[in-house]
Structure formats: C-alpha cells, structure tokens
Amino acid sequence: MQAKKKMLAVDDDPNNTIIVEELFGEHYDLRTAATGQEALNTAMDFRPDIILLDIMLPDMDGYEVCKLLREHPSLSHTKIIMVSAKGEIEDRVRGYEAGANDYITKPFDEENILESVAFFL
C-alpha cells in the first residue's frame, strides 16, 4: 500500500479549513496552519508534498511565506498553490514571482482546486 501524499493547508479562516479538510482529508495526510509562522514550522517538520497557501494571514502574507519556503533547501521543490480572494493580475504575478506553482482565487470552484492538486501530484 502506497503512503498518502502530504498536504499542508494554510488559512486563518476556519470555514476555509473545513472545506479543505472535507475535500482532501480522506485522500491526503493533511495538516493545517492558521498563520505564516505556523505554516513555516509545520512545513519544516512535516515536509509536505503540496501546500495550499492563503495570502492574507495575520502575521505575514502568503507571498513572504512562499519566498521563505523556496529558500529552504528541503522545501524548495514543494508544490505551492496560492488560494486567495485577491484575484487581480498583479496579485497573481506576485504569487508566481514569490515561487508559487499555481494561483486559485476564492471562492474557488471545487473541481478547479481538485484538478490543480491532482496535476501537481
């Protein structure tokens, strides 16, 4: 039996965390974080295969979290999908410049996020 892929979902809104848990909890080894620092600490210990990363977090923004993850050698190739209500082209560009592999806007279409995760894993 193959081990489940590891996923870290970072969002400070408990409702969004519940949705992600419902979508992915059964199929992935899922951990969650509500702040940027918690995300960094969890990622260092957990070594996820993929991270769903909100941009608007209480302590630092997702762009900074993404950059810090990319700087860490053991996490530099982890797939990162930014999931944010910020949908302007400038926001998307900043996400890709920070190192994100994909960018999905909220409220997200379940099919879209499922396909994006499947594509990267």
Number of strands: 5
- Please compute the radius of gyration using only Cα atoms: 13 Å
Please estimate the helix content.
40-55%
Report the top-level CATH class: Alpha Beta
Shape: globular
Question: Which helices and strands appear, and what pairs or packs with what?
Answer:
Layout: E1 6-10, H1 14-24, E2 29-33, H2 36-46, E3 50-53, H3 62-71, E4 79-84, H4 89-98, E5 102-105, H5 110-120
Parallel strand pairs: 1-2, 1-3, 3-4, 4-5
In words, what does this structure look like?
The protein has 5 helices and 5 strands; from the N terminus they run βαβαβαβαβα. The chain is α/β, with parallel strands linked by helices and 121 residues long. 44% of the residues lie in helices and 20% in strands. The chain starts with 5 loop residues before the first strand and ends with a helix. The mean pLDDT is 94. The protein has a single domain (6-120), classed as Response regulator (Rossmann fold, 3-Layer(aba) Sandwich). It is globular and about 40 Å long. Strands 2-1-3-4-5 form a 5-stranded parallel β-sheet, sandwiched between helices.
Task: Write out key terms for the chains shown.
alpha/beta, 20% strand, 121 residues, Rossmann fold, 5 helices
Write a brief structural summary.
With 121 residues, the protein is α/β, with parallel strands linked by helices.
